[in-house]
Amino acid sequence: MQKITITKPDDWHVHLRDDFILEGVVKDSLKNFSRILVMPNLVNPIKNTQDAINYKTRIINAIKKLKIHNYFEPLMSIYLTDNTSEKDIELAFRSGVIFGVKLYPFRSTTNSFDGVTDLFGKCSLVLYKMEELGIPLLIHGEVFNKTVDIFDRELIFIENIAIPLKEKFPKLKIVLEHISTKDAVEYVKSAKDPIAATITPQHLFYNRNIIFNHGLNPHFYCLPILKREKHRLALIEAATINNTKFFIGTDSAPHSKENKENESGCAGCYSACYAVEMYATIFDRVGCIDKLEQFISFNGPNFYGLPYNSTKINLIKQSHIIPKKLNRNIEIVPLGAGELLDWKLVE
Ligand code: DOR
Ligand code: ZN
């Protein structure tokens, strides 16, 4: 039986939500990952340092209930709005609690109604401050505009926002989150440091056909939406070339089965529980299992200037099926429900 032992990975982009689902969701993440970078788009977004400290306390309380020892404290982010001030950024920096600031363009995704309406008009002073202090800007890189095709939102964001942003703030640390297109891969490769991108399991596994395969499949609806096969292939190439600019970020985003299978179904795929097995499966299927550790365990810390984790995980090559449903105090259909994975995490 084939077995690999690799450095325990981190998840550089995860949604944990809050309240009664927090415990179950955190447990899934900590089974797979050491450090987790927590997104701030709660129903009431985490907009400042105090919100983040309170949320972090709730997450740590959930971890304590699970009796997990030797865990890393969650890495917190705050949500950029039109009203975020330079003082907010200074406080965030001085607190030592805030790892990054998340940019959601207005209406771009789940809970983005507090998002930024005019980045250069409203947030320039804040961006200068972040550049000066070295705080990373984590970007949901899509424009929302009724005239822009949903499949082009990332490309238009790159052309209209990312390129001028890089020109105006060349030293700002930027992470384009959950990239979904060949255009984003090429842009990140060509742009001057410091810039990087995270890649999710769903964007490596699937192209957009899966959303419409024998009827509409809401469980594959996420934002950025899945794209054509040529984009998926470009993302696989980016993830497997040992380039520090590309690293793991699951974008695991739990929604109840009911809210997904709904006349207004929510965007988001829940992958925290099987994410490492999914990445291992896709890397192996394209003949690159030897590149897995670099992508999930080393490239992220390299970009963020952090040490590698000292603990290890073991994976064996063994088929198993992703359950059709999970109970995390709400019923959740995980990403790839009912499908085969080729690798399994073992003790
Ligand atoms: O599909 C997504 N779900 N994309 C996001 O950007 C947000 C996330 C969520 O919070 O549900
Ligand atoms: Zn996300």
From TrEMBL:
<dbReference type="GO" id="GO:0044205">
    <property type="term" value="P:'de novo' UMP biosynthetic process"/>
</dbReference>
<feature type="binding site">
    <location>
        <position position="255"/>
    </location>
    <ligand>
        <name>substrate</name>
    </ligand>
</feature>
<feature type="binding site" description="via carbamate group">
    <location>
        <position position="102"/>
    </location>
    <ligand>
        <name>Zn(2+) 2</name>
    </ligand>
</feature>
<protein>
    <recommendedName>
        <fullName>Dihydroorotase</fullName>
        <ecNumber>3.5.2.3</ecNumber>
    </recommendedName>
</protein>
<dbReference type="GO" id="GO:0008270">
    <property type="term" value="F:zinc ion binding"/>
</dbReference>
<feature type="binding site">
    <location>
        <begin position="15"/>
        <end position="17"/>
    </location>
    <ligand>
        <name>substrate</name>
    </ligand>
</feature>
<feature type="domain" description="Amidohydrolase-related">
    <location>
        <begin position="11"/>
        <end position="317"/>
    </location>
</feature>
<comment type="pathway">
    <text>Pyrimidine metabolism; UMP biosynthesis via de novo pathway; (S)-dihydroorotate from bicarbonate: step 3/3.</text>
</comment>
<comment type="function">
    <text>Catalyzes the reversible cyclization of carbamoyl aspartate to dihydroorotate.</text>
</comment>
<dbReference type="InterPro" id="IPR002195">
    <property type="entry name" value="Dihydroorotase_CS"/>
</dbReference>
<feature type="binding site">
    <location>
        <position position="41"/>
    </location>
    <ligand>
        <name>substrate</name>
    </ligand>
</feature>
<dbReference type="InterPro" id="IPR004721">
    <property type="entry name" value="DHOdimr"/>
</dbReference>
<keyword id="KW-0479">Metal-binding</keyword>
<dbReference type="Pfam" id="PF01979">
    <property type="entry name" value="Amidohydro_1"/>
</dbReference>
<feature type="binding site" description="via carbamate group">
    <location>
        <position position="102"/>
    </location>
    <ligand>
        <name>Zn(2+) 1</name>
    </ligand>
</feature>
<feature type="binding site">
    <location>
        <position position="251"/>
    </location>
    <ligand>
        <name>Zn(2+) 1</name>
    </ligand>
</feature>
<keyword id="KW-0862">Zinc</keyword>
<comment type="subunit">
    <text>Homodimer.</text>
</comment>
<feature type="modified residue" description="N6-carboxylysine">
    <location>
        <position position="102"/>
    </location>
</feature>
<feature type="binding site">
    <location>
        <position position="223"/>
    </location>
    <ligand>
        <name>substrate</name>
    </ligand>
</feature>
<feature type="binding site">
    <location>
        <position position="267"/>
    </location>
    <ligand>
        <name>substrate</name>
    </ligand>
</feature>
<comment type="similarity">
    <text>Belongs to the metallo-dependent hydrolases superfamily. DHOase family. Class II DHOase subfamily.</text>
</comment>
<keyword id="KW-0378">Hydrolase</keyword>
<dbReference type="GO" id="GO:0006207">
    <property type="term" value="P:'de novo' pyrimidine nucleobase biosynthetic process"/>
</dbReference>
<feature type="binding site">
    <location>
        <position position="140"/>
    </location>
    <ligand>
        <name>substrate</name>
    </ligand>
</feature>
<dbReference type="InterPro" id="IPR032466">
    <property type="entry name" value="Metal_Hydrolase"/>
</dbReference>
<dbReference type="GO" id="GO:0004151">
    <property type="term" value="F:dihydroorotase activity"/>
</dbReference>
<keyword id="KW-0665">Pyrimidine biosynthesis</keyword>
<feature type="binding site">
    <location>
        <position position="13"/>
    </location>
    <ligand>
        <name>Zn(2+) 1</name>
    </ligand>
</feature>
<feature type="binding site">
    <location>
        <position position="178"/>
    </location>
    <ligand>
        <name>Zn(2+) 2</name>
    </ligand>
</feature>
<feature type="binding site">
    <location>
        <position position="140"/>
    </location>
    <ligand>
        <name>Zn(2+) 2</name>
    </ligand>
</feature>
<dbReference type="InterPro" id="IPR006680">
    <property type="entry name" value="Amidohydro-rel"/>
</dbReference>
<feature type="active site">
    <location>
        <position position="251"/>
    </location>
</feature>
<feature type="binding site">
    <location>
        <position position="15"/>
    </location>
    <ligand>
        <name>Zn(2+) 1</name>
    </ligand>
</feature>
<dbReference type="GO" id="GO:0005829">
    <property type="term" value="C:cytosol"/>
</dbReference>
